């Protein structure tokens, strides 16, 4: 019995983990373990022998069981200590430098102009960038033979031979949203639609994809004077100045009559673009009184409603406001440029809080 005791107590002391401990438990005090076998021998003993051996075997069993329990607790403590030693975290370490991105000047300018027009009662409308040539041209009084179609350098979607769905184009301007908005909302109506447009063109002030914001106001008593006031107020708010030198030029668009284009005085000296000075003019928008045929195409009676519309180049506005001389850089995704011209994304522009900071 002493041999058994010293054998199992030392095995328990040496056990490396709970699995080893369980193996020892089965071998020592399990149902078929050595202590159980010894207990079976009690039957063959004389009553005197049994009186000595019985309690001694029970004591041995208890001692081994206690040693197992104590060792198990010890192993659990050791495991916890080991986890605490390896899985630690220094909560006093400095945090990683924050790496927030910046808002692209086009996004910033869009947010700004949306805030300004919202204040004047215009809501934001949207339309698809891939549209049918009916919405992009016909409904805007640009029929198939019209030279304006050729002038726009349109990207046409490929059509397989035999595919007789109506032709689709990458919209060349945001004007088709005028038609979609009239169809959806009827009159009276006051909307702007900012978004991307496409034309095959590429130089310092033209890129194949650029951004416009369309405006449309329809009611029963709207005149060219309302258009001029709206545009002047917008430009002053956007450039955050009391006065901007604007040039209204008589022009022609198929979808307006009469039509006007608006330029802003600016200078391009030594690679810098400045607004409000110099002898150059940058065209920023087209506008006019909506042609009756366009109003009718939108499902509205042109004898009751009339209104004005405009299309402003957002990228050009951003170039002028932030002095960015080359439009092509807007779309190069050069990180240094984006960091330099980007805006803090949490500063939402508002007329009360300030447009740009
Ligand atoms: N859609 C014209 C363009 O892209 C711009 C324009 C001119 C829009 C006059 C208008 C407008 O709404 O009335 O060149």
From TrEMBL:
Q: Which InterPro entries match?
A: aa-tRNA-synth_II, aa-tRNA-synth_II/BPL/LPL, Phe-tRNA-synth_IIc_asu, Phe-tRNA_ligase_II_N, Phe_tRNA_ligase_alpha1_bac, Phenylalanyl-tRNA_Synthase, tRNA-bd_arm
Q: Where is the Aminoacyl-transfer RNA synthetases class-II family profile domain?
A: 116-332
Question: Which gene specifies this protein's sequence?
Answer: pheS
Q: Which SUPFAM superfamilies match?
A: Class II aaRS and biotin synthetases, tRNA-binding arm
- Superkingdom to which the source organism belongs: Bacteria
If you read the UniProt record, what top EC class would you report for this enzyme, in one word? ligase
Q: What is its EC number?
A: 6.1.1.20
Q: Which residues cross the membrane?
A: none
Query: What does the note accompanying the cofactor annotation read?
Result: Binds 2 magnesium ions per tetramer.
Which HAMAP family does the record cross-reference, listed alphabetically?
Answer: Phe_tRNA_synth_alpha1
Instruction: Work out whether the entry's keyword set contains Acyltransferase.
Output: no
The species this protein belongs to is: Parasedimentitalea huanghaiensis
This protein's UniProt keywords? Aminoacyl-tRNA synthetase, ATP-binding, Cytoplasm, Ligase, Magnesium, Metal-binding, Nucleotide-binding, Protein biosynthesis
Name this protein carries in UniProt = Phenylalanine--tRNA ligase alpha subunit
* Any one GO BP annotation for this protein: phenylalanyl-tRNA aminoacylation
Q: Does the keyword Aminoacyl-tRNA synthetase apply?
A: yes
GO MF terms held by the record? ATP binding; magnesium ion binding; phenylalanine-tRNA ligase activity; tRNA binding
| Quaternary structure note | Tetramer of two alpha and two beta subunits.
Instruction: Give the residues the record marks as binding Mg(2+).
Output: 257
Q: Which locations, inside or outside the cell, does it occupy?
A: Cytoplasm
Could you say which protein family the record assigns here? Answer: Belongs to the class-II aminoacyl-tRNA synthetase family. Phe-tRNA synthetase alpha subunit type 1 subfamily.
Its needed co-factors are:
Mg(2+)
Q: Give the reaction(s) catalysed.
A: tRNA(Phe) + L-phenylalanine + ATP = L-phenylalanyl-tRNA(Phe) + AMP + diphosphate + H(+)
GO cellular component terms?
Answer: cytoplasm
């Amino acid at each position: 019995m002493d041999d058994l005791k010293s054998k199992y107590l030392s095995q328990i002391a040496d056990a490396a983990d709970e699995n080893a401990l369980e193996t020892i438990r089965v071998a020592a005090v399990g149902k078929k373990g050595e202590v159980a076998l010894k207990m079976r021998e009690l039957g063959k003993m004389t009553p005197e022998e049994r009186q000595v051996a019985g309690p001694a075997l029970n004591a041995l069993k208890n001692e081994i069981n206690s040693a197992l329990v104590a060792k198990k607790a010890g192993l659990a403590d050791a495991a916890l200590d080991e986890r605490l030693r390896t899985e630690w975290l220094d909560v006093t370490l400095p945090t990683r430098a924050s790496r927030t991105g910046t808002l692209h000047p086009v996004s910033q300018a869009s947010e700004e102009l949306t805030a300004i027009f919202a204040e004047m009662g215009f809501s934001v409308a949207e339309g698809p960038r891939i549209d049918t040539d009916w919405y992009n041209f016909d409904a805007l009084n640009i029929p198939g033979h019209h030279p304006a179609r050729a002038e726009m350098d349109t990207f046409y979607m490929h059509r397989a031979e035999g595919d007789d769905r109506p032709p689709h184009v990458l919209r060349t301007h945001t004007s088709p949203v005028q038609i979609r908005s009239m169809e959806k909302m009827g009159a009276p109506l006051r909307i702007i639609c900012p978004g991307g447009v496409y034309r095959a063109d590429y130089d310092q002030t033209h890129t194949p994809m650029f951004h416009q914001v369309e405006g449309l106001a329809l009611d029963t008593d709207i005149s060219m004077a309302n258009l001029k006031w709206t545009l002047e107020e917008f430009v002053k708010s956007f450039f955050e100045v009391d006065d901007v030198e604007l040039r209204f030029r008589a022009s022609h668009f198929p979808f307006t009559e009469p039509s006007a284009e608006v330029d802003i005085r600016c200078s391009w000296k030594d690679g810098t673009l400045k607004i409000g000075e110099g002898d150059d003019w940058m065209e920023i928008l087209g506008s006019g009184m909506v042609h009756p045929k366009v109003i009718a195409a939108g499902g509205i009676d042109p004898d009751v409603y009339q209104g004005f519309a405009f299309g402003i180049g957002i990228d050009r506005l951003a170039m002028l406001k932030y002095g960015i001389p080359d439009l092509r850089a807007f779309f190069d995704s050069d990180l240094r440029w984006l960091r330099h011209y980007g805006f803090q994304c949490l500063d939402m522009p508002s007329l009360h809080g300030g447009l740009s900071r």
